[in-house]
Amino acid sequence: MSRPHSFPTSSAVSRRRFIGIGGALAAGGLLAACGGEEPVTGGGGDAAPASTLGTTSGASGSIRILDDNTNPVFLNGVVEAFQNDTGITVEYEQANFNDLHDRLATLFSAQDSSYDVVMTWAAWSAEFGQAGWLQALGSDAVPTDLLPAALDAVSWNGTVYGLPKFASAQTMFYNKELFRQAGLDPEAPPATWDEFVAAAKALTTGDRYGFTCDMGNTDGAYQNFVRTLLLNGGQMYGDDNTVTFNDERGVEALTKLRDLLTVDKVMNPSSLQITNASDLGTLFGAGQTGIVFNWPSQWAAATKEGAVVGRENTGNAIIPGISVTTASIDGSEGFAINQFSQNKPAALAWLQYVTQRPVQTRIVEEEGWFPVTTTLLDDAAITETLPVVSTYKEQSDFEIRRYGSPWYSDVTQVLSTNISRAMLEQATPQEALDEAAARATDIVERYTG
Predict the structure, then answer these.
(1) Which residue ranges does UniProt annotate as crossing the membrane (predicted)?
(2) 57 shares its domain with 127
(3) What confidence category does residue 51 fall into, taking pLDDT thresholds of 50, 70 and 90?
(4) CATH at 295
(5) What is the DSSP annotation of 2-62?
(6) In this predicted model, what pLDDT tens digit does every residue of 169-215 receive, in sequence order?
(7) What pTM does this model have?
(8) CA distance 389 to 40
(9) Is 411 inside a domain boundary?
(10) Is the model's pLDDT at 412 over the cut of 90?
(11) Counted domains in the chain
(12) Do the beta carbons of residue 176 and residue 315 sit within 8 Å?
């Protein structure tokens, strides 16, 4: 299934029966109503809508939620617990991600209030938020300890339009047993790009490549380039959204990405056909590649019952940098409130409920995503359950971006097309990025002009 961040779902950790999501979460501080609080900033810039939603007590009634199908945990007890704890009735629906954008756009453009809460991520928060279709939140409605990258996924241009349901960023996974067989130290993963390339060469044999990635669809090609761009200290955009990805750092980044395939010959050629991170995870879990840069659910795929690699041989570390120490791309998701909802206090109660410890603990334990708060990220029990959390803590000290924007889909399409041209040596990296940048500049100007 193709999706912006190509997330698989996972139930590799033993699914617990309903965790008592206690009445503490039903305290008045979680419940909300429309207010006039100043909006909290979260995505850069200083634009803000005139009316924001602030916290108060006494939310009641009913809400309808339209989500993607990433999180089975909501159907497996969380919705029921929320209803029991708050007295708010919920009609919860999951839909295929690929169908969700157009469905939401149709809903919003008709000012349809039939769904109160909708799933969002960085690009949609920007697109639908700028269009005036999402309810902005006041600062008192937003937990103070949210992780910046998770908050960024529900924000645009200085305004927070929702709350995250899980945090996610890519880190490096490597097969310790294959490291041993190649004469590499499994406890000393590569820390620089040159070390990564050297390790990938050592791991490449007649029937196995040292590195594999997922560049087989539009967003996969975009993600792999943006990650390499950030690792080289580059940026997609400069001041006033000026396109900068075709500068010297961008060209060097794409050159290094292409060289993995055409010069170093350490990238599995099937990387250009792999369309989903779950397929990448399965390949790594089967011991068929040495290194991947993947989402946190890679841990579950590699350590689940029947996986060849297993827990003891799954290594995890920050992604090796080119001209900076490290960087990564964000894949956090969240919930937002339909601007046309007639049940906003109850809708905000749901958004806040999902960020609390009991729900976040289940998302970590049962699905393998990162928690959305610094408090839980520092919790030893969380790290014991999901060891890659410790790597995420280290990774999050450095830049993690996705560049969600109203023009995300349009720019991603033209950039990915040209990245593929460069990877297939149909154009030089400079030619490919210059072509993409010219078209991206026109696209951004249409949105901002």
Answers:
(1) none
(2) yes
(3) confident
(4) 3.40.190.10
(5) --TT-PPP---SPPPS-----GGGGSGGG-EEEE-PPBPP-SSS----S-EEEE-S---SE
(6) 999 999 999 999 999 999 999 999 999 999 999 999 988 999 999 99
(7) 0.87
(8) 27
(9) yes
(10) yes
(11) 2
(12) yes
